[in-house]
Amino acid sequence: MSNSIESHLAEDRVFKPAKSFSAKARISSMAQYKKLWKESVDKPKKFWAREAKELAWRKPWKKVLDWKAPDAKWFTGGKLNVTESCVDRHAAGPRRNKAAIIFEGEPGDRQVITYGQLQREVCRFANVLVAKGVKPKDRVLVYMPMIPEAAIAMLACARIGAVHSVVFGGFSSESIVDRLEDSGATHIVTADGGWRRGKIVPLKDNVDEALKKYQGIRSVVVFKRTGQEVAMTDGRDSWWHDETAKVPAKHEAKAFDSEHPLFILYTSGSTGKPKGILHTSGGYLTGAYTTCKYVFDMRDDDVYWCTADVGWITGHTYIVYGPLAMGVTQVMYEGAPNHPDFGRFWQMIEEYGVSIFYTAPTAIRAFIKAGDQFPEKHDLSSLRLLGSVGEPINPEAWMWYHDKIGGGRCPIVDTWWQTETGAIMITPLPGCTPTKPGTATLPFFGIDAAILDEEGHECKPNEGGRLVIRKPWPSMTRTIYGDKARFKKTYWSDYKGMYTAGDGARRDKQGNFWIVGRLDDVLNVSGHRLGTAEVESALVAHAAVAESAVVGRPDDLKGQAVVAFVTLKEGVEGTPALQKELRDHVGKVIGAIAKPDEIHFAPALPKTRSGKIMRRLLKELVATGNVTGNTTTLEDFTVIDNLRKSIEASRKTG
Ligand code: PRX
Fold first, then answer.
1. Average pLDDT of the chain?
2. Could you tell me if the CB of 519 is within 6 A of ligand 1?
3. Torsion, CA 519, CA 524, CA 527, CA 529, rounded to 10
4. CATH class of 522-653
5. Domain 19-81+264-515 adopts which CATH fold?
6. Crossing angle for the helix pair 532-540 and 576-589, to the nearest 10 degrees
7. What is the per-residue pLDDT across 398-433, written as a single tens digit (0 to 9) for each?
8. Domain segments of the chain: what residues?
9. Whose C-alpha lies nearest to ligand 1, atom 24?
């Protein structure tokens, strides 16, 4: 199995949706797609207004779009409460007793929450937050396992106009501190722990550790999930079950402006400090809803399952806001895909009759490696549509997903988008788009995507360039929280009035987009964005380290593996014990996903005469074992030779 981009060029297998699938789909022919796409980019306001009208608004908007690059305001003058679209309108009608969330915990416990119950739980928790003194626009940090209460906490924030900042449960206490400080959060919702591979993730302990360094927290509400003893600080901490028992299950929702902030979600960039991506209400919800409707073609009788974590944007848009706005039934799972073995997902698909399944290429590659015997044991015939997200899916993984999981009959939607875009941007539509393994195909409605060269000219077919979006769309991020200058510089400074995604891509002759990967110093490790600078700054924070450079290396399972070059301080010896200590240190500072797969001690790093580390050379070296690229600007030629020798030596000893 390879993960090479080059193989895409040779990809000529084309898969068209079955006639029976197309016949029932909302968009059933390419002619229909092309017509609507053209209309939607010629007159985006008309298209998005039509879609937004399907949501619950308290007050209609005056203007669909106010646009002065890079500032977009969508549906200005309009007022809504996001939870009315996601919960109340279903609870008030025939979906009242329909399952909203079918939950399975890793230990095997199960729970079904109907839309009626979801409404009561969201209202209760909204009342709890109000009782704790949370006001509109206050930031609430949510650090939870993958349990329904994570979604309930997010929706409760939305209901009272507070801004949630969800932190992935796999992140460390220091990552919590960074996010608390940056967002100025005043309240935390967490759990005692969560289950992962049979072990408890000590969420509350991590929060306690973080709160030794951050003083601004007024309350911590703790959901009891794992039941082990945790410390509770008097006057600050309280239990979810105690608090919810005190309040009514009704909460009158206030209406907020369409541009009211909904959440902040941190994502990696090319500097050490994660960016707090801000999303607002009306536009974001419109993007989430519209993509669920057309990309997943969700129906009332679907059972939908997205395996992402709520700590990532996929969990926000395609577990919480989009599917709930559609009123669909979804499956939610707490734990690891290989617990107790690699059959867990397939068992759940069979048992719950999952019809739409959305996962990541890195998971698919792990399943391939584990062996076909796991899916083969299960009846997967309920599936009708498959989705992929997070990184380019290599054609081998695509084919396996198509054949072994989809039984050759399910269309695959390979969806390209980002934390910043809020919703899917480039994707097949399942009832019409001819798919090819490895391409996210064509832009979604209202999305004017293009590939430009350095001068801003559109690239010719198969010529590589930068992926940009030329027109605003409703679910676009409004800013980096507290850092407008960085927002402008990162996304809006390459080409006038256009959004740059930071991805390299090309289009084939049919216009399909092939995403090649990041152009900046951002790695994609198991579908997670990770800034090389973040890992580097974690490393140099260790007492033994003088300098470090981190690069990605292609990896069959993770997409990219993290390789760190470390120069130690004078007198420190580079031992295997120190390698382990540094890995653990990075795990502690950022989280386990950031732990370097390889650490190489190097007396010196390759630099230009002006002292810039030449990561390009390091990348090539770890990928191929050699450097053939231009080295004329390299200050000291012996450095590369020494590094090559040390990599060879350490890979030999494993
Ligand atoms: O490089 C692209 C890659 O993931 C980046 C966005 O990461 P994040 O904000 O964490 O969001 C991930 C989930 C939406 C993109 O810049 N990426 C995401 N989906 C794809 C992809 N690359 C290729 N194909 C995809 N389908």
1. 95
2. no
3. -80
4. alpha beta
5. Rossmann fold (3.40.50)
6. 120
7. 999 999 999 999 999 999 999 999 999 999 999 999
8. 19-81+264-515, 113-254, 522-653
9. 392
